[in-house]
Fold this sequence. Notes:
The protein is α+β, with helices and mostly antiparallel strands. Helix content is 37%, strand content 18%. The radius of gyration is 24 Å and the shape is elongated.
Amino acid sequence: MKKNLFVDEITRRIEDKPILINSIFVVGEKKRLTTKQGDSYLHLTLLDKTGSIKAKIWDDSKIPFDSVPDDGVVSVSGRAETFNNTIQIIIETIQPVETRYINPSDFVPSSEKDPEKLLRELQKILKPAFSSVFKAILESFFNNKTFIEAFKRAPGAVKIHHAYIGGLLEHTLGVVKLCSLLCSLYPFLDRPTLLTGALFHDIGKIREYRYDWKLDYTDEGRLIGHSVLGVQIIDELVPPSSPLPSDTIMILKHMILSHHGEIETGAVQLPMTREAMALHLADNLDAKMASLNQIYEEFSQEERWTPYQNFYSRRFFLASPETEKAEEDGAIRLKPLIRGQKTLGELLQRIERPDE
Ligand SMILES: [Fe+2]
Ligand SMILES: [Fe+2]
C-alpha cells in the first residue's frame, strides 16, 4: 500500500485552510480524554518517517473508540487543521492495515549513508585488532550474516541520538574513529583492546530495539538492557574451537558493561581500566555531538536560543561565531560552523591554514 502524504508535507502545506487527509500512519499513542464540557474523545499521535502529528476522534457513535487499535498501522481519512497553534487531524474514518502490505521505510527514518561503505571503513580502522588476540571474535562477527544484517539496520537509540535505521553502525564508526585517535594521543592505551571494545560497546542494541516499521524497545531490551545483552552476544561469538584467554574476554566484557560511565546513567560497573574510561568518554562525545547537531538543525537560524532542552537542562545558543574576522592573524583559523555537520572528523577537516 503506497503512502501518499507525509507528516512534513501536511505541516508545510497547512496555512489558514484545513486540508483533506487520506493516508496511512503508525499509531504512536492512544488516550481517551474528556473536554471541559465533560464529553469524552479519543486523542491519538500518528507517526511516519518524517515526524508525528496529533489526531482526534470526537464521536464515539461514528467510530467506536474501542475499535481503534492501540498499536500498528492505520489508514486514516479526515481533515488537518490548526487549533491553538497546533496542527491536528480530525479523523472521519480509521481502519487497521496489515503491516505486510506497507513499505516499512515510509514509517521509520533511515540513515542517508551507505552501510556497505561504512562497514568497509570500520574494518579498515579495525585492522590492528584483526592482527591481535581478538582476531577470532572479530572474524566470527563479520562472517555472521545475521549479526551483520542486524548491525546495519539497528538504530543507535529510539530518541536523543542516532534514532534512525543505520544509526548504530554510524555511531559505532564514530566511536571507533575517536578511539583510534585517542590511541595516537595516548600511546599507553592498548589499541586492539580499545578498538574491539568500541566495536562491540553497543552491540546489544541489535536486540534491545525493534526496527521493523516502528522504532521501539523489545521486551528483553527493557528488561535486560543493551550492556548485558552485549555481553551475551560476546559469549555467542567466541568460537569454542579457539577460546580467547579468559582475562582478554573479561576485560572486553568489562568495557561493554561500564561504557555508560556512571551507575546513574546505566553503567553496570564503573570503568576500571584506562581503555574502559577512554571508551566511555568517546561514546559520550559521539552521542552528545550527534544529539546537539540534531537540535541545531531543528531550530531556525533567525532564533538566537533553542527552546529549553529537558534532556540537557538548558537552552543552547544558536548564533555562529564570526570567526572570519580572525583571518588576518595568519594563524590557524576556524571557518564558521555550518549547520548539518555530522562528525568530529568533518569538523577537524575544516581547520585549515589560510594560505594553503
Ligand atoms: Fe550504550
Ligand atoms: Fe554508544
